[in-house]
Amino acid sequence: MADILYTYKDSVYANITNKCNCSCTFCIRSLRDGVGSADNLWHEKNPTKDEVLNAIRNYDFSGYKELVFCGYGEPTCELDTLLEAAELVKKEFGLKTRLNTNGLGNEENNRNIVPELSKVIDSVSISLNAPDAAKYQEVSRPKYENGFDKMVDFAVKCKEQIKDVKWSIVDVLPEQDIEKCKELSEKNGIQLRIRHYS
């Protein structure tokens, strides 16, 4: 089985699924099999909820500050596993939890999942990827129509119920797109993180 938990810097990451509802042009999945301490993040089949929970129960979290749901798939595609794993790590290990997401979890689950997330997730990082719908469609290639608007709506809903919400972009975007992303962030009151693309 591929790694369910792996580390990067001072965080532990949970790779709970390889399912994804986007096919981003820059996705790291097309470049290599692993990241951080993990050599292989490709599951032959998705781990079961029990496998994820057991991996957490048997992990030594000493020295780590948070558990981040981020792997080679979109965590909200396995929402039940995500919610139970987040609750477990908070209750049994006292860790903070973060969700790295493409922001399309409401569409994936056919409902507003933010109230459920807000009970067990401390911070959310949402991939903005582009400043407008046309460029988002071109870069993120979501399986849903109007993906950009749905992602923005998800971010706004998260901001209403979760204290720490950020959008992220990579620094390879043209300068004018970065400026437009900053304007969008200011308009919606959501912090923008510009990540270095390696």
From TrEMBL:
It comes from the Bacteria. InterPro entries: Aldolase_TIM (IPR013785), Radical_SAM_PqqE_MftC-like (IPR050377), rSAM (IPR007197), rSAM_sf (IPR058240), rSAM_TatD-assoc (IPR023821), rSAM_TatD-assoc_bac (IPR023822). Gene3D superfamilies: Aldolase class I. CDD domains: Radical_SAM. Keywords: Iron, Iron-sulfur, Metal-binding, S-adenosyl-L-methionine. GO terms for molecular function: catalytic activity; iron-sulfur cluster binding; metal ion binding. Residues 6-198 form the Radical SAM core domain. The keyword Metal-binding applies. PANTHER family: RADICAL SAM DOMAIN PROTEIN, TUNGSTEN-CONTAINING ALDEHYDE FERREDOXIN OXIDOREDUCTASE COFACTOR MODIFYING PROTEIN. This is Radical SAM enzyme, TIGR04100 family. It comes from Butyrivibrio hungatei. The lineage of its organism: Bacteria, Bacillati, Bacillota, Clostridia, Lachnospirales.
